[in-house]
Design goal:
- The protein is mainly α.
- The protein folds into 2 domains: about 130 residues, no CATH class; about 150 residues, no CATH class.
- The protein is built from 15 helices and 5 strands.
- Helix 3 crosses helix 8 and helix 7 runs antiparallel to helix 8.
- The N and C termini lie far apart (about 50 Å).
Length: about 290
């Protein structure tokens, strides 16, 4: 076994509780060190999820004086201890469980405003991107990314979040429906964009279950499915690229003016390369770069 293979086995042993439950036999870790390895694995998992909870639930963290709670506190709870015996670090299933723990923790607190549940929903969807590192197997049909989420909100979050950062009050003028698309690239960059409501239907349709036979059938009947539109638009098939590239056109909430200027420069080139994408999805909100 090569050094690289040994390292991969150790990493898998530390990251996957199911592997540790089978014992150290067949792994480079001896039985005497298994208990220490399990303890270290729990330390890594706590640190991994604590960091991503703090980063993803940063807006609700601003109201800890009113709620008396923060998302990252769940890492020290008894429920999280039970979760560690089943955790596969970086998997979507584990990210969902931790995100649900944090959302339940904050939902039970006094609400700072009627927009609170929408804010938690936004942070939960963002957390799924931040805490999911697994990749889907390549398939011969359009499919969304492993952690990609398209969700409708009752509040205008693109306008609300800058107000929260500035410490301003949230009025009823921001109460309008908004559909946000969350995605993560293979390189680990997270994007959030606001899209037209009908794009949510396209997202649901590109679920990886549409086959060549179904698509040919829709063509014979004269109907064009959203999956047909994606394939006709020049996208390669498989997980993520369809929705990642649409959502990667612009990061919705840029951190600084300097970075926004860089984004404008990159976007001019990107617009030219992705003209076929926008023709395929005319409902994607055209952001001002």
């Amino acid at each position: 076994m090569s050094d690289r293979a040994v390292q991969d086995e150790i990493i898998r042993y530390l990251a996957d509780a199911k592997v540790r439950a089978q014992g150290a036999r067949g792994t480079p870790i001896c039985n005497d060190e298994a208990a220490k390895a399990a303890q270290f694995a729990h330390f890594l998992a706590r640190r991994y999820y604590r960091d991503r909870l703090a980063r993803s639930f940063r807006y609700s963290h601003r109201f800890r004086g009113q709620t008396g709670r923060t998302a990252e506190e769940v890492v020290d709870a008894d429920e999280f201890d039970q979760f560690l015996s089943q955790c596969v670090m970086g998997s979507l299933e584990s990210a969902r469980r931790v995100g649900e723990m944090a959302s339940s923790q904050l939902s039970a607190a006094p609400e700072p405003g009627p927009w609170w549940q929408d804010l938690l929903g936004y942070e939960y969807a963002y957390f799924l991107q931040a805490a999911t590192a697994e990749r889907a197997a390549s398939v011969n049909r359009p499919a969304p990314g492993v952690s990609a989420v398209c969700r409708q909100f009752a509040w205008a979050l693109p306008r609300m979040l800058p107000r929260l950062r500035a410490g301003e009050s949230i009025g009823d003028d921001l109460q309008r429906n908004a559909v946000l698309l969350f995605s993560r690239t293979e390189a680990g960059r997270i994007y959030v964009v606001e899209v037209e409501p009908h794009v949510e239907g396209i997202f649901r349709a590109t679920n990886g279950h549409s086959t060549e036979r179904n698509r040919h059938g829709s063509r014979r009947s004269g109907r064009t499915s959203p999956c047909d539109a994606h394939v006709a638009g020049g996208y390669r098939r498989g997980p993520v690229p369809i929705l990642t590239r649409v959502s990667g056109e612009r990061r919705l909430f840029g951190p600084s003016r300097a970075r926004k200027e860089n984004q404008r420069t990159r976007a001019r080139t990107y617009r030219h390369r992705c003209s076929r994408i926008r023709n395929t999805l005319p409902g994607v909100a055209d952001q001002n770069f």
